[in-house]
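Let us work through a complete example step by step.
Step 1: write down the sequence.
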Amino acid sequence: MGTNDTASTFASLLQRLQGELQLLPDKPDESPEITLRCLWALAEDRPLAVSQAATFTPGALDDTGRARLRALVEQRLAGTPLAHLTGRQDFMGQILLASPAALVPRRETEQLGFTAVRRLQSLASARPLVIDVCTGAGNVALGIASHLPQARILGADLSPEAVGLARQNAGFLGRGDVEFRCGDLLEPFSEQLFQSAVDMITCNPPYISSARVDGMPAEICQHEPRLAFDGGPFGVKIIRKLVATAPPLLRPGGWLLMEVGLGQGAGVARTLAADPQFDEIHTHNDAAGQIRVIEARRTPAAQA
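Step 2: predict the structure and record it as tokens.
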């Protein structure tokens, strides 16, 4: 394939993607051209994340490469997430491994990660202890670790497959010190050393109501694990359980941070405000003005 053939093939495939690719609002960094650059690089055996694709220059492909590229385009148009094809996803300035084992990290969840980093930076602890539950690919835990390398960070997920991916990501990023355990919410941290000792618990829980999961776009419900979305009949089952089980692990003055779904924030904030085990509640809105992250401080011992 010569230079002219490369340009012609790129133009024709881009035109097709522009006409047929259904892009989801929860992946705002993707576009038809970025998608094609990622898939072309993959056909060249160079897996790239979206953040790397803008500077990628498509090279000449042999017959095998062209066939692979066209097959990848067909898979993407059929609804396979781009991150599942490339095996790469950006999050909080890092490139992670991605697979069907866990939820593809979303840009919106970076708000949880960066809110956690800012709160931890305000604490007096030189080596804060952080637990991230519903950790999925380990993106929040490893994102916090990248900004606060001195922190001790552990993550957990109910899915053994997700925990496996999180551990792979820890190795991929050279952060073998970030530990991942398998279990339901905070159950993997029942040892005495965690009781009243944790500076922060973070969680991006499943928060879609069970009835709505099957009605989500096929790219989501047919390719990503239901366990990562299904929050029970009203979408807040896991959130309520976490609010009930977090206080014994949090040190007095420690923080619980959660991502919440659209329309859930006000109700969750009211529940926390009515709980004497928490004394400060802060809500954080997204660009559309919706509450998406909630911080709750464990009541200091003198006030409990």
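Step 3: interpret the result. The longest strand covers residues 250-259.
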